[in-house]
Amino acid sequence: MDTVYSNLCVLGGGAWGTALAQTARRAGRSVMMWAREPEVAEAINTRHENTDFLPGVPLDPALRASASLGEALAGAEAVLVVCPAQALRAVLAAAGPVWPQGAPMVLCAKGIEQGSGLLMTEVAAAALPEVAQAVLSGPTFAHEVALGRPTAVTVAATDPDLAERVVATLGTKTFRPYAGTDPVGAEIGGAVKNVLAIACGIVEGLGLGDNARAALLTRGLAEIMRLGRARGADPATLAGLSGLGDLILTATSTQSRNFSLGLALGEGQALATLLDGRRSVAEGVHTARAVGALADRLGVEMPICQVVNALLEGTQDVSAAMDALLSRPLRTEID
Ligand SMILES: NC(=O)C1=CN([C@@H]2O[C@H](COP(=O)(O)OP(=O)(O)OC[C@H]3O[C@@H](n4cnc5c(N)ncnc54)[C@H](O)[C@@H]3O)[C@@H](O)[C@H]2O)C=CC1
Ligand SMILES: O=C(CO)COP(=O)(O)O
């Protein structure tokens, strides 16, 4: 068996799809991107820049893009799926008829599907049951990755050979994937940290201080651990790059769209204004609702995520939300 996938397709022309495509080029792979917007594909092909979603980063001129799924997927040996979480089902339904025979997918979106409460691997298994899956997740701001700054991620698949091959395909000196066999753990960390990043932004915007942020991060990790346990995830994955690692990154940096959105909410701006006309995705807004419903269904206590959901839904204001969190009964730390 070949040790790497030489020809890749990246489904998704946003910031992260572009950064991963650039990374794969840096690793020496042939890469074809699918961008939903023809003007994004055009800019990548002619200006070698994703002017809409990752402006200012020069891209490898050999990186090609198309707005046609059939053209983008033709001949791919593996497919990186990098669309927003809520669009995954529709994107895979459209890609199914032209999916390259035998090519596995690497799921790179971070979120939980609203309505179903399904993880990305579960949505993908329902859409394309024959296609093998890996999950790529970790602390990775697209801009830094695209520039080739040092970054480490988790690549998890139930088939260890698949995880190893994806690692070998994408790994470079500065992009360091670590193989794992717990995709569910990698997905839960990556999805829930976006909701917690919004919470940390709110705390920052309210000026509640560094102690409050540390408390929120740590109790937030406890929520990731509880949901992970209920879904059979390995706690070591949740404490690794795709869990704690990504929580630290996203919940402490204004580079994060989720943290920045929370910060603006905490400073008193209205959610509708913040989301109005926005093209880039803040996954935590969508995952908050999905994770709230999932936690209820599984009987898992996730008070921080529930409060973020109530805030975003408009059923609680910021001061009532803080009051709800601070009024919770005192209890043992480890549960
Ligand atoms: N930007 C980042 O630093 C990172 C993003 N991710 C994840 O990658 C996923 C994609 O995010 P970004 O690339 O940042 O997106 P983005 O915010 O840069 O761009 C939005 C993308 O979503 C696409 N899109 C919007 N609505 C769509 C629909 N209905 N159907 C199909 N595509 C649609 C747009 O065409 C565009 O490609 C998200 O799940 C995000 O959490 C993961 C790691 C890092
Ligand atoms: O997933 C990310 C970093 O790992 C990107 O975070 P934001 O979507 O909040 O910008």
TrEMBL record:
Gene Ontology terms: biological process: carbohydrate metabolic process; glycerol-3-phosphate biosynthetic process; glycerol-3-phosphate catabolic process; glycerophospholipid metabolic process; phospholipid biosynthetic process
Enzyme Commission code: 1.1.1.94
Residues that hold substrate according to the record: 110, 257-258
Domain Glycerol-3-phosphate dehydrogenase NAD-dependent C-terminal: 182-322
Family annotation (InterPro entries): 6-PGluconate_DH-like_C_sf, 6PGD_dom2, G3P_DH_NAD-dep, G3P_DH_NAD-dep_C, G3P_DH_NAD-dep_N, NAD(P)-bd_dom_sf
Pathway(s): Membrane lipid metabolism; glycerophospholipid metabolism
GO cellular component entries: cytosol
Pfam families: NAD_Gly3P_dh_C, NAD_Gly3P_dh_N
Active site, UniProt feature: 193 (proton acceptor)
Residue intervals of the Glycerol-3-phosphate dehydrogenase NAD-dependent N-terminal domain: 8-162
Ligand binding (NADPH): 16, 36, 110, 142, 257, 281, 283
Keywords: Cytoplasm, Lipid biosynthesis, Lipid metabolism, NAD, NADP, Nucleotide-binding, Oxidoreductase, Phospholipid biosynthesis, Phospholipid metabolism
Amino-acid positions noted as binding sn-glycerol 3-phosphate in the UniProt annotation, renumbered to this chain: 110, 138, 140, 193, 246, 256-258
Main location: cytoplasm
Family label: Belongs to the NAD-dependent glycerol-3-phosphate dehydrogenase family.
NCBIfam families: PRK00094.1-2, PRK00094.1-4
The protein's name: Glycerol-3-phosphate dehydrogenase [NAD(P)+]
Species name: Pararhodospirillum oryzae
Gene designation per UniProt: gpsA
